Amino acid sequence: MTRTFMRYALASLRLSILVTMVVVAILYGSVTPVSLAIWTVAVTTIALLRYVILLTYKRRLNGVSGPVLRVFLMRVGWAWPAGGVVWGASMFVFFLKAPAYDQFVCIMVLVAMPAFAIGTFSANLRAFNGYVDGLALTVLAALAWQLVNGQELPANFTTAGMLALALIYWAAVRLSGRRFYEVQRANLELQFDNEALVKSLTDRTRSALDAVAVKNRFIASAAHDLRQPVHALSLYASWLVAEPELVAQIAPKISRSTRAVNDMFDSLFDFAGLENAVLQPNLQTVDLTTLVQDLELQYAPVALERGLQFRCRAVAGLRVRSDPLLLKRLVGNLLSNALKNTVSGGVLLAVRRRRNAVHIEVWDTGVGVAREHQQAIFQEFYRIPQPGTGEGFGLGLAIVSGLSRALGHPVGMLSRVGHGSVFWVQLPILQTGVVADRSHETDPMAF
Q1: Are 290 and 323 a contacting pair, CB within 8 Å?
Q2: Rounded CA gap, 392 and 90, in Å?
Q3: Are the C-beta atoms of residues 91 and 110 closer than 8 Å to each other?
Q4: Residues 317, 285: contact at Cβ < 8 Å?
Q5: Sequence-separated (6 or more) residues with CB below 8 Å from residue 274
Q6: Long-range Cβ contact pairs of 195-200 (< 8 A, separation 24 or more)
Q7: CA–CA separation, 361 vs 408, rounded Å?
Q8: Helix-helix angle 100-121:2-27, to 10 degrees
Q9: Measured between alpha carbons, how far is 231 from 120 in angstroms, rounded to an integer?
Q10: What is the pLDDT along the chain (447 residues), one digit of tens a residue?
Q11: Which of 95, 92, 103, 84 is nearest to 34 (CA)?
């Protein structure tokens, strides 16, 4: 609204200067030169001040909103009522002093100015009312002065009639200005609503396109990643049919290929569950000692099979508020990711107290993650382009990120290429206990 007001105010100022020149030309030689000169100086001064105000807004505040703009408008708001007063004061210069035709022209100018202000100033209701009120009150004062000091009865009747018409016209202009302001405001709000609707539709279209892109990436990734273990299964099955006496050598290979396919599908189903369902965590008190023991039972055999050491360190008695199943899935995905990307050494699961929080940490001696990949690895279907990383869809850490958002447990990481990584989950502490084993605090990766 302010931008519209300032734009129209400049156009009205130019027209005001032109009308001033016309009025001065009409009244020159017909009224007292001193009064005409004083009025001309006054109206020119107000016009220059308004021009400076508009120039200041254009150079410093165009596009600015909020308190700064409101303070500026409060400081310069007097210029429009002053302009109305100066134009209304022209009645003291010409009314019943200039020839009738000249008076008629000047009165028509004063009648047109409030009507013109409806279209130019009503975007700022305060400036509009100030301008119209200043103009009307000054005209009414001039008419009242003439009515009080008039000598002839017909002239007094004419002046009284003009005074009544001026009051009616003043009320009509104020009402029209307010209604026009409300229409402009409603149109502006409708424009903002339409822009918000367009933005919403654009965002939804972008989301749909992103979903299609994710689906395409999934199809490409699934086709690539499933081809190798499925092709291996086919080869091993054909080999077993051809040479059944080699079952002892072929069966473990079939088992590993089958397990690889199952792991890929498990990751896929976990990710699909996060994307397609709204998770409603069942928050309750979780004993982290029990959680660590359950994870140790689940992942120790996996580490043993890969020839890796798997250790757990925890502060006894620590409890947090979380969803035990979702938290176990989150930490389990971190452990699975660590075991998959570690060739030698081992993996450590540690629970530590950090002031008023608990960190569940997963350390590994894997290949590490370069700094430029540390944000991208939490995106779906992203795999680090370096040797030593495990196969799969690249969904493990994407699932961790989704579970972290659902539970409200921040996840962080540190890593050095060639030295390993540590991922942690931060949870608010509920209860502390005694330290069960602090050996990890001095040498967390002492495998």
Answers
A1: no
A2: 87
A3: yes
A4: no
A5: 399, 402, 403, 406
A6: none
A7: 17
A8: 170
A9: 77
A10: 566 667 667 777 888 888 889 889 998 888 889 999 999 999 999 889 888 888 887 777 776 676 777 777 778 878 888 988 999 898 888 888 888 888 888 889 888 888 888 877 777 788 888 888 989 999 899 888 887 776 554 556 677 888 888 899 889 888 888 888 888 778 777 877 777 788 888 888 887 777 666 566 555 555 545 555 666 667 777 777 777 777 777 777 777 667 666 655 655 555 555 554 455 778 889 888 888 988 888 788 888 888 899 999 887 788 888 888 888 888 888 888 888 888 888 999 999 888 788 999 999 988 777 776 656 566 655 555 554 444 544 555 777 877 888 888 888 888 888 788 888 899 988 754 444 343 333 344 444
A11: 92
- Give me 161's structure tokens: 């009639």
